[in-house]
Specification:
With 416 residues, this protein is mainly beta. It contains 2 helices and 33 strands. It is globular and about 80 Å long. The strands form 5 sheets. The protein has a 10-stranded antiparallel sheet, with no helix packed on it.
């Protein structure tokens, strides 16, 4: 039987002590000092100072009023930019069994648990049960083979793995990770304990067996690049208290939080769905179209034609679809969503030219038909798709052949 590194009784883990991040002096600020942008399910952004935050609601103070928003209507909370550390440059990446990804400067393990020195501006330590750790990557020994490491971690196995870089590829030894020290890793195999220099190791992967967890409704991202999935949260003065998906509690100083994602399954962006069918045809039919032209006119996801973003009405959008005439794109919709929302119009770079007919079809029933023109203002579209399983978007030719017919469907999404 595989020898366990640490045999911690989960009943002995205090809900408050299981995870603790102490606030570093001179970095802590109050919630009132935090400027945030709150993105709502309706596609609006409310900016102000954070007053209160819980699993149920978000309260911010704007220049004119105090606004309380139900959490069910909030997609995300983005905090004012501070110095953000590139997570890829951190020495240690720790993945927990509940999906949390922690960026750290150092990790050691012993009989009392796993101890992390947090990266970025974090000056405190984090201690957690050793059996909460799924794998550890050491960037100094990984040589850019992160994808290869993830592939090994995803393989079925019955032992721990010590992953090394041979120079040509990653390889691994099977056994038991006994401990991670400052400079060495104790690894047991074939009845012998090896003391391996950490500089020679790309990472360690623990055998944890099957671990099925429901997708959490909350994700919190720190400035250092750590990500915590959570089931609930509560702002208490300058500390954001989380109940993680793994059943541990975390306290994060609010000034170290970069983003709180509350979207869960409230919203699905069309750009994230696999298209069941994509058809483009030119205004003038040709017996054989150049492959390069066909590729250029294909629908764009989260980008415009010839640009890495969508531009509409003087704003830049990072999510959405860009389509040209004549295009038909079909999606199979997940169950339980009731409305399709988007801001639609001719790309700013084409205006005032461009003229198309936009049709939205759900289960072969026309749900919307409207004209989009470069000389008109963009339209906010809200379509009832309740019960529909097939959605087809059609950008048809308008009054000007296909001249400048580049349509942006910004923030195109379905919501519950």
């Amino acid at each position: 039987m595989r020898a366990a590194l640490i045999n911690l009784d989960r009943l002995q883990l205090s809900a408050v002590v299981a995870f603790l991040i102490a606030c570093a002096p001179h970095f802590c600020v109050s919630a009132a000092d935090q400027t945030v942008d709150v993105e709502t399910l309706a596609g609006e952004t409310v900016a102000g100072h954070l007053v209160a935050l819980s699993t149920d609601s978000v309260t911010i103070s704007t220049d004119s009023e105090t606004v309380e928003l139900p959490a069910d209507e909030v997609l995300s909370i983005s905090f004012a930019a501070a110095q953000v550390r590139a997570a890829s440059a951190a020495p240690v990446h720790v993945l927990l069994v509940d999906g949390a990804a922690i960026v750290a400067d150092q990790i050691t393990t012993d009989r009392s648990g796993a101890h992390l020195q947090l990266g970025g501006t974090d000056e405190s330590r984090l201690t957690l049960p050793s059996d909460a750790v799924a794998n550890v990557r050491f960037n100094a020994g990984l040589a850019g083979r992160v994808a290869e490491f993830h592939q090994i971690a995803g393989q079925a196995r019955g032992t721990d793995l010590l992953v090394v870089d041979t120079g040509e590829a990653l390889d691994y030894l099977e056994g038991t990770v006994a401990a991670i020290e400052d400079e060495r890793i104790l690894f047991s195999m074939d009845g012998e304990t090896l003391r391996v220099k950490r500089s020679k190791v790309a990472g360690v992967i623990y055998f944890r067996g099957e671990n099925e967890m429901a997708a959490p409704p909350i994700h919190v991202v720190t400035h250092a690049g750590s990500r915590f999935p959570a089931t609930s949260l509560q702002l208490n003065e300058d500390q954001l208290q989380l109940a993680t998906a793994g059943g541990w509690n975390v306290e994060l100083p609010i000034d170290r939080v970069l983003r709180v994602d509350l979207s869960g399954d409230k919203v699905v962006y069309l750009s994230d769905l696999q298209a069941q069918r994509e058809v483009w045809q030119p205004f003038f039919e040709q017996p054989q179209l150049p492959a390069a032209l066909i590729a250029y006119r294909r629908p764009r996801r989260d980008a415009g034609f010839g640009t890495d973003a969508l531009h509409l009405d003087g704003r830049t959008y990072r999510r959405g679809l860009a389509l040209c005439s004549h295009t038909e794109i079909e999606f199979r919709l997940p169950a339980g969503y009731s409305r399709l929302l988007t801001r639609a119009g001719i790309d700013d770079r084409m205006r005032p030219a461009g003229h198309v007919e936009l049709t939205i079809v759900g289960d072969k029933q026309q749900l919307l038909h409207t004209t989009l023109s470069g000389s008109d203002e963009p339209q906010d579209i809200d379509v009832d798709i309740s019960g529909a399983r097939r959605l087809v978007l059609i950008v048809g030719f308008g009054a000007d052949l296909d001249y400048s017919d580049y349509v942006n469907l910004c923030e195109a999404r379905i919501v519950r």
